[in-house]
Amino acid sequence: PRSSVAGLKTLAPDAMTALIAISQAVTASGLPQDLIELAKVRASQINGCAFCLDFHLKLARQHGVPQTKLDLLSVWPDAPVYSARERAALAWAEVLTLVADQSVTEDDYAAARAEFSEAELVNLSLAIGTINVWNRLGIAYAFAVSA
């Protein structure tokens, strides 16, 4: 590893505290943690961050996400195991994670809003934005995956 979460906390304590605070605020928002973890795992799959994928798969299991949903996550559009709300969260996670390749369309927004209130969608967007920051840090600094 080039650094670690602890190393970055030492180098940029205020920024890292702020990043952690965003995650804590999303958790406190009432958005179901299993749904947040599904979105974070999917974004981490797309970005290829082994550290974050390992970390959030463990959290997803702790929050009761069934193993079948975790196993099929990379092919979620073709897997019938996800609820409409989970599908909306996963689609939103993908469009926000891949925003550099495509814009967020009115149809994307409308599909997400069909399942989430405005406040829920803001919190889901913050969760997705935050995991994308963590993914970039994990990849840039080659965070070690725990054994």
Labels describing this entry:
0% strand; 147 residues; mainly alpha
Compact description:
With 147 residues, this protein is mainly alpha-helical.
Distance between the termini: 14 Å
The total count of helices amounts to 8
Q: Based on DSSP secondary structure assignment, what is the total number of beta strands?
A: 0
Structural class: mainly alpha
Biggest pleated-sheet summary: none
Low-confidence stretches: none
Instruction: Give the overall shape.
Output: globular
Query: How much β-strand is present in the residues?
Result: under 5%
Percent helix, as a range, is: 55-70%
Whole-number mean pLDDT? 96
Specify Rg, calculated over alpha carbons: 15 Å
**What is the string of helix and strand elements?**
HHHHHHHH
